[in-house]
Amino acid sequence: MKSNNNLNLDMEKDQETTFDYSKRAQWLRAAVLGANDGLVSTASLMMGIGAVKQDVRIMLLTGFAGLVAGACSMAIGEFISVYSQYDIEVAQMKRESGGETNNEKLPSPTQAAIASALAFSVGAIVPLLAAAFVKEYKVRIGVIVAAVTLALVMFGWLGAVLGKAPVVKSLVRVLIGGWLAMAITFGFTKLVGSHGL
């Protein structure tokens, strides 16, 4: 009896140590990418409009429009992508089994779309909340950058830990990408806005 328990524990340990982290890759990629995309694109939109308009309402409306448009775009894109994968897998199952399909093994386009939209929205809400309660323009810009930086660090860390990737490399990549997106959007919008558009 004792040897059976030891055998079961050894098998569980082997399964834990040989777990293929690439199996997590698809949902992890979608969740982290969606949240990071929501964070960076919404913050960049808000920074861009903030470069030419200091009004907090305009900045928040721009961010909100970015959240809604981005969440819808991510959901539709993910739905189409996963539905294409679904069709391919159904066709493959039919070829291999003579017409039968195992629906339990098939991806769900609707679930993927909802998850993608939610992940984008989670990221997008960060700069909106950061800006919502700050009236002073320069302070508001600083608060948005600080909140986005903190969220970028969290998303980079989470992606690295869940994917068993190097944490520092992931953090640096996510931070630099987010900062560049905000800076480029702010700079180009300021440049275009200063020339009378």
From TrEMBL:
One Gene Ontology biological process: intracellular manganese ion homeostasis
Coiled coil residues, start to end: none
Keywords: Ion transport, Iron, Iron transport, Membrane, Transmembrane, Transmembrane helix, Transport, Vacuole
Membrane-topology descriptor: Multi-pass membrane protein
Reaction it catalyzes: Fe(2+)(in) = Fe(2+)(out)
Cellular compartments annotated: Vacuole membrane
Gene Ontology terms: cellular component: vacuolar membrane
Alphabetized GO MF terms: iron ion sequestering activity; iron ion transmembrane transporter activity; manganese ion transmembrane transporter activity
Transmembrane domains' residue ranges: 56-76, 112-134, 141-162, 174-193
Similarity section: Belongs to the CCC1 family.
Protein task: Vacuolar Fe(2+) uptake transporter.
Protein name listed in UniProt: Vacuolar iron transporter
Species this chain originates from: Arabidopsis thaliana
